């Protein structure tokens, strides 16, 4: 059996051809593939607008800027996530406040968030960043009601969940990132994600104002449309105001303005072409992930060594399939010896040395910390073969067999 990683990209001949065509085109970056990818992705997710950026972290950073995060602003997020979900607030000088997870779902616990809000005067907190961890959709309808009660914005970190959804109180499917309940959402196109572009990210929103602001922030804060120019037409053409009695009304084609401090967070046309090609089989990938999850669920249900598992949940996008087990370290090492490379998602962010220095400590998030003691992510990707998955399942069961005496 070849090595089996926890995640793996799938690149088809169609993907290769899409990239080759772009390499042979006139644009490698800042070309038409960007807009094409953005429009196709927005249609897939169900949002009005999408902004392609260089990676998911860049997406989070720009969102925080667009929503006004700055020193003195407090934002709530989960400790069970990749560090970028919290770091984006720190990039802007804001303060990260962690709330514990629901041990049944592994998602940010809305009851814990409400408790934080109730303990402080209104206006103490500005926003919430819930994470669709492992591909399980957060109930954003409930978070929206809470956010509105306290005047908060929401950024949905949906990096694990393109194609995922939750069912709202009206029995409607609400796709992750569709913008109906969160001001902004973000996605990642890292190789182990559902849609792989090498690197890359996407921001989705239903707000025209935020969309237009993000377009400027993505590219150095530069504006290239004359309706938004601030300098005069005389200045634009190189004339000194007052020398000529006639003020030019048209701005020359070369003209542009940097109106605020932005970033070079652009996606290339090469990456967009690959992302577009992958998007075309996104639903096929989701279905295969759900088949894999169902087989894991059947294999590990009612096993005495399993404390909890991802389970079969409507709308789950299954970026990860997680078991909580006894003797996690022993199982992890046993599987590595068999070239099965599982992963741990995640070390609680509040216990990273950087956040410890800001005052967070062990015991602050008891459910997140208990989850970390036992969690292990099993191989999960659409090209995982039935034989490979069978080998993973058999290897886990063998470790916990009576003969092995773990």
Describe the structure.
With 406 residues, the chain is of the alpha/beta class. It has 2 domains: 4-220 and 262-279, Aspartate Aminotransferase, domain 2, CATH 3.40.640.10; 282-399, Aspartate Aminotransferase, domain 1 (Alpha-Beta Complex). It is built from 14 helices and 16 strands. It has helices at 13-23, 32-45, 56-66, 84-91, 110-118, 140-150, 208-218, 233-237, 269-279, 282-300, 328-337, 353-357, 366-374, 386-399, and strands spanning 4-5, 49-53, 74-77, 95-98, 127-129, 153-157, 165-167, 173-175, 184-188, 201-205, 222-223, 257-258, 306-309, 321-325, 340-341, 375-378. A 7-stranded mixed β-sheet has the order 2-10-9-6-5-3-4, sandwiched between helices. The protein has a 3-stranded antiparallel β-sheet with strand order 13-14-16. The chain is globular and about 85 Å long. The model has no long low-confidence stretch (mean pLDDT 95).
Keywords, please?
406 residues, Aspartate Aminotransferase, domain 2, 2 domains, seven-stranded mixed sheet, 14 helices, 16 strands
Q: What's the structural domain tally?
A: 2
Give the mean pLDDT: 95
Work out the strand percent: 5-15%
- CATH topology of the largest domain, by name, is Aspartate Aminotransferase, domain 2
CATH architecture of the largest domain: 3-Layer(aba) Sandwich
Total strands: the figure is 16
Instruction: Kindly state the percentage of residues in helix.
Output: 25-40%
The number of helical runs is 14
From the alpha carbons, calculate the radius of gyration and give it in angstroms: 24 Å
Low-confidence stretches: none
């Amino acid at each position: 059996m070849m090595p089996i990683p926890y995640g793996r990209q799938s690149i088809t001949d169609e993907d290769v051809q899409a990239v080759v065509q772009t390499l042979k085109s006139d644009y490698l970056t800042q070309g038409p593939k960007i807009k094409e990818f953005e429009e196709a992705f927005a249609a897939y997710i169900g949002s009005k607008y999408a902004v392609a950026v260089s990676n998911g972290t860049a997406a989070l950073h720009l969102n925080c800027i667009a929503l006004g995060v700055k020193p003195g602003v407090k934002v709530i997020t989960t400790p069970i996530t990749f560090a970028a979900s919290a770091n984006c607030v720190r990039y802007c000088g804001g303060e990260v406040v962690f709330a514990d997870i629901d041990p049944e779902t592994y998602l940010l616990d809305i009851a814990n968030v409400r408790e934080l809000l109730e303990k402080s005067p209104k206006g103490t907190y500005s926003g919430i960043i819930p994470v669709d961890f492992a591909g399980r959709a957060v109930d954003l309808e409930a978070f929206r009601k809470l956010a509105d009660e306290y005047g908060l914005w929401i950024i949905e970190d949906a990096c694990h969940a393109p194609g995922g959804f939750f069912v709202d109180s009206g029995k409607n499917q609400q796709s992750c990132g569709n913008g109906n309940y969160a001001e902004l959402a973000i996605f990642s196109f890292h190789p182990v994600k559902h849609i792989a572009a090498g690197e890359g990210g996407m921001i989705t929103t239903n707000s025209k104002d935020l969309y237009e602001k993000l377009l400027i922030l993505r590219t150095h804060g530069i504006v290239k449309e004359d309706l938004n120019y601030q300098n005069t037409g005389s200045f634009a053409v190189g004339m000194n105001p007052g020398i000529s009695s006639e003020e030019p009304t048209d701005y020359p084609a070369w003209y542009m303005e940097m109106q605020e401090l932005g970033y070079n967070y652009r996606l290339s046309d090469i990456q967009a072409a690959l992302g577009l090609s992958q998007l075309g089989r996104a639903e096929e990938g989701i279905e295969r992930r759900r088949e894999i999850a169902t087989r894991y669920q059947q294999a590990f249900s009612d096993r005495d060594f399993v404390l909890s598992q991802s389970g079969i949940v409507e709308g789950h996008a299954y970026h990860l399939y997680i078991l909580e087990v006894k003797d996690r370290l022993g199982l992890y090492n046993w599987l590595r010896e068999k070239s099965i490379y599982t992963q741990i998602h995640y070390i609680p962010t509040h216990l990273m040395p950087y956040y410890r220095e800001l005052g967070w400590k062990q015991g602050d998030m008891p459910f997140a910390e208990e989850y970390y003691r036992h969690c292990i992510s099993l191989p999960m990707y659409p090209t995982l073969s039935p034989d490979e998955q069978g080998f993973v399942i058999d290897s886990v069961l063998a470790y916990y067999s009576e003969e092995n005496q773990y």
